[in-house]
Structure formats: structure tokens, C-alpha cells
Specification:
globular; 7-stranded parallel sheet; alpha/beta; ACMSD; 12% strand; TIM Barrel
């Protein structure tokens, strides 16, 4: 079965080092007991990563950008994502990371990256931008996505021990409001809006333009509701994502193999739903 991974980072040295040194993730990684030096030492070349992805059956890997420069000094990584896509444009697709605090600069960046650099979507991080999803600063970005007819990834689920983060800034009620204000906007909610899993199930059930993946959080308390919904009422709107390298894509696929999905539902989650929302 072909697979589309809707949240992926190649485990190159620059990516792994960047994660371990990030003000967003470093404290949480240390708290988990991860040996950061050993983690970085596991880096591989882009060519090797691409070869292994294809051999495993990954047809597309979505590179989700991030820009939290205003709040955390996390500069946009769009240039790095562009290089990955240039390395293997048939395998990698890039979503432009955008900082809503940058106003029209963010909108112009998105327009340029889509029209001139081949990016296929947008990405925002309300928790790390320290703004609720339905804040007015996000709305020009949402409108531009509709104009360009591209989807947007809204990252939810707070990292552990990151100072200044507020989980409620990524509450499904705000996603519900945005989905209603922009019915043409195709939304992919990343990380399932944990810990608000039940609310997220309700939001995706209500809004035909809202898709959801629960990468990293499938085994967290409360996520049983997500798996149950994926088997039934949300089977057409759940997409697979590994969040590699935080969770290795092979381990993530094995996890979904064990959830007891029917073959039909599994094909929707692992491939068909993503193909539809991505417009492939």
C-alpha cells in the first residue's frame, strides 16, 4: 500500500542538531531522557533517507515548515525545506512556515514560495506564535491560502516544558470558527489538538474542510477517542503522519498497522484522504 506521510522531517544532521538546540524542544527532549549527542549521531544523508522512504512504500513526505522567530527566535526553515524538495521533488512536498506577527510580509512570503518555489501549502504554529488560532493576525494567511487554493497545516499539541506556551491557543473551538469563516480553506490539524481530543473529533466531524492527524499523541491519555473515530465517523478525514524524526516513520506505520483498521479504512487514512486534501 502506498503511503503519504503528512508530517515529516528528514533526519539529516542539520535537522537533528536544530531540534536539540531549539528553545522550543530542547527542555522536553532532555526531560524525556534522550541522549542528544547520540540522537544527532544517527543522522543520515538525504539520498539515503529518500532511498529508504521509497523502499518502505512512502510515496510522498510532507515537509512542514515553522516560523516562530518573533516569539522564540526560531527563524523560518523554508530555505532548508526548499533544498530537500530540490533534492527529490517527486518525494518531498513543502508547506511554508509562517509567522503571523510578520503581517503582510508573511503573506507575501507565502505567495512567493507557492508561485515561484513550488511550495504546496502553508503552516502555522499558534502555540509557538503565542496567539489563538482565530486571532486576526492569522486571517490574512488563511485568506491567501484560499486565493492560492492550497491547504494549511495548523500545528497543535504543546511540546513539553516550553516556556510561554498556552495549550488553549490551539483549541478546536478556534479551529471550528476558522473553518466556518473560511469554508474554502482546507485545514490539516497536526497532532490532533491534544489534549482536546474529543473536542477535535467533534470539530472534524462538523466541518468537511477539516482534516486531522494525531502524530506523536496516539498513545497519550484520551487519544483512544481519536482511534475510535478514525475507524468510523472520521474515516474520511483522518490522515497519517509520523512526525519523524521524533517518531520514526517505520514505527509510526507499525503503530497504525496494530490499530485494527479494516483494509478500506486503512487505505483512506494512509493514502486516499491525504491525496484529496493535498489536491494531488
Amino acid at each position: 500500500m502506498a503511503i503519504i506521510d503528512c508530517r515529516f522531517r528528514p533526519h539529516t544532521e542539520s535537522i537533528l542538531r536544530g531540534l536539540t538546540e531549539s528553545p522550543i524542544f530542547r527542555e522536553g527532549l532532555l526531560a524525556s531522557g534522550l541522549d542528544l549527542d547520540e540522537y544527532v549521531a544517527g543522522a543520515e544523508s538525504v539520498a539515503k533517507i529518500c532511498k529508504d522512504l521509497r523502499a518502505f512504500g512512502i510515496e510522498k513526505a510532507i515537509l512542514v515548515g515553522r516560523d516562530a522567530e518573533t516569539t522564540y527566535g526560531f527563524k523560518p526553515n523554508n530555505d532548508e525545506l526548499k533544498k530537500f524538495v530540490e533534492e527529490d521533488p517527486h518525494l518531498f512536498c513543502a508547506f511554508a512556515g509562517l509567522d503571523p506577527h510578520k503581517g503582510m510580509q508573511a503573506v507575501r512570503t507565502l505567495d512567493h514560495l507557492v508561485k515561484e518555489e513550488g511550495f504546496v501549502g502553508a503552516a502555522t504554529d499558534p502555540i509557538y506564535n503565542q496567539l489563538p488560532i482565530d486571532h486576526a493576525k492569522f486571517y490574512p494567511i488563511y485568506a491567501k491560502c484560499c486565493e492560492l487554493d492550497i491547504p494549511i497545516v495548523i500545528t497543535t499539541g504543546p511540546a513539553r516544558f516550553t516556556e510561554g506556551t498556552v495549550s488553549a491557543f490551539a483549541h478546536p473551538d478556534q479551529i471550528d470558527r476558522v473553518a466556518n469563516d473560511f469554508p474554502e480553506l482546507r485545514v490539516i490539524v497536526s497532532h490532533g489538538a491534544w489534549p482536546y481530543i474529543s473536542e477535535m473529533v467533534g470539530c472534524a466531524f462538523r466541518n468537511k474542510n477539516v482534516y486531522v492527524e494525531c502524530s506523536e499523541y496516539e498513545k497519550f491519555p484520551g487519544s483512544e477517542a481519536f482511534i475510535e473515530a478514525a475507524k468510523g465517523i472520521l474515516q474520511d478525514r483522518v490522515v497519517f503522519a509520523s512526525a519523524h524524526p521524533f517518531v520514526h516513520y517505520k514505527d509510526a506505520v507499525a503503530l497504525y498497522d496494530g490499530f485494527g483498521f479494516t483494509d478500506d479504512v486503512k487505505e483512506k487514512i494512509m493514502y486516499k484522504n491525504a491525496k484529496r486534501v493535498l489536491g494531488l
